[in-house]
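Here is an idea for our session: we take a single protein and study its fold together. To get us started, please write out a protein record for me. Start from the sequence, derive the backbone structure tokens from it, and show both lines together. Go ahead whenever you are ready, and we will take it from there:
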Amino acid sequence: MQENPTITAAEIARLAGVGRAAVSNWRKRHPDFPAPVGGTTASPEFDLVQVEQWLRTQGKLPELATADRLWRHLAAASDSPAAGLAAVGALLLARQRGSRSGSTDAQLTPLLPDVDALTDELGPQGAFDELWQRFSAPGPGRPFATPDDLADLMIGLANVGGGSVLDPAAGSGAILRAAARAGSTSMYGQELDDELARLAGLWLALHDVTGEVSGGDSLRADAFAGRAVDAVVCHPPFGATNWGDDELGHDPRWIVGTTPRTEPELAWVQHALAHLRVGGHAVLLMPPTVASRRAGKRIRGELLRRGHLRAVIALPPGVAAPHGVPLHMWVLRRAATDAPPPARTLLIDAANGDLADTAPRVLAAWRAFAAAPDGDVEEAGFARAVPVIELLDEDVDLTPARRQPAVVGEASGEHLVRTRERLAAIVGELPALLPQVTPAPDGPDGLFLTVGELAKTGALQLIGPVRAGTSTPAPDGPPVLTVQDVLTGVEASGRIDDRFGQEIPLAVGDVVVPVIARQLIPRVVTTAGAVLGRNLYLLRPNPAALDPWHLAGQLRTSANEKQASSLSSTMRFDIRRAQVRRLSIDAQRVHGDAFRRLVAFESAIRQAASLGAELAQLTADGLARGVLRPDADIR
């Protein structure tokens, strides 16, 4: 860290909310304006503390929250934002572990009062999360992190459950944080940038997540050589020209053959496979050219022949850096050497539309395919389970758009009509689904009790979350409701494995809430038969005292999201702190019915958005190919 935090004239202008010309005028008209302490004549730098004092004296400095003030000083005083945040993170971790002593970077000393204030307000973990949010915002010197929605989709495809996850190009840890949200019990990462590696490791430690993040080059100096994990999920660097091919020519990780020099991304694919246990999944972001480049043809062919490559998914443009490239996701599964390879590979073309709309559809198609890998999965223009023998042609081209069945002739017209009818039916139901509400004449009313207080009074049981344990999985055991199932609103899709803890059957009327998520999302269980997955709270209301839909509706409020969370982009919820409005059981049932209808309304809105996008695409394709024509067509 630098000796003194400094700030440029342009940054002073942003700090005071004025134009740069105003700063120039202040320097000319006010003799007491701080003198430059560095920089050049054309671009002078000023002492940040002196500037803030002067602005405050002049009444020109807006009052800042503690976290904002601390981050501004930290970013200005640090050689890099990552280094500054890592220095504070190490201090917060020491305090979380009960130590307030020890060596502190001398340049950090002026910031200690704000560090103490933020820690007293939010705790060490909450303080780090607040600063992390500011570090993660786009800006100079900030790395491009994998966006949360994309990281969640990748983790969902890998089906990490409570298993172990490795990210060999971890960056600042976005994918590891997504794994934590999905219930992974142990996480490992490696990152070339030592400062980012240190930051990601601090996040794990401050959130009490088992694992480690090492610095270094994963391809040249694998920090986890010999370790097999349940899932490898990775956003590797693209287009590297010096990735170590000369020294790694006969590396044991090349399980399907030596990686060509011009195919560094396929080296990452083989690195991921080498770290998987048999049956484990890997999900990697890839540039689209890897699916068809001639130099990689042999490796692609071997991945298919040996049953490792299970799916290639084309994503919408701009979902992650580099934003100008429409990326692919490759889904791999470590196949047993003595098992017959699957006959089909899934290709999904989700390049059209928005990721938020297509992600549930991608997950549904993948799960349908994974449940029956030799089945004939086919959604015209979107997904197709392609016979491997068809892919092993002269080019071994895995580009999803080139392998999709076209929607032509009568089929396109019928499909369009059915889609239009489904959309019209859903839109027609929307007014009836939306609960009718009116403003309360006397404003807000009622008393509130926390979930912890309700548990003490016997109004509900608070069960879980299930921790990792040891069990003997049964082939016909009950399905497991996972965090991802709750977040996406689908039926229980998980399975009991040998790391599963206590089996807790779910009953109709139970309310489940993820421990870690980007939002507080409660879900009412409507069908029995599944068991509680890891990292889920189970709230079991006493039906004589508490209506489950009323409880779920109260939990989902924005006020409870703040009340129960760690106030970070990846929030850990303490559901005991959430507040529930106290009403008579009859009033609860009325409110519960309104909340239930609101959930149905939201689901219908999502379906309508998806069907609307599909209908627009079908119509455009049909018109362009001439299989559809406008009613007023003239020739």
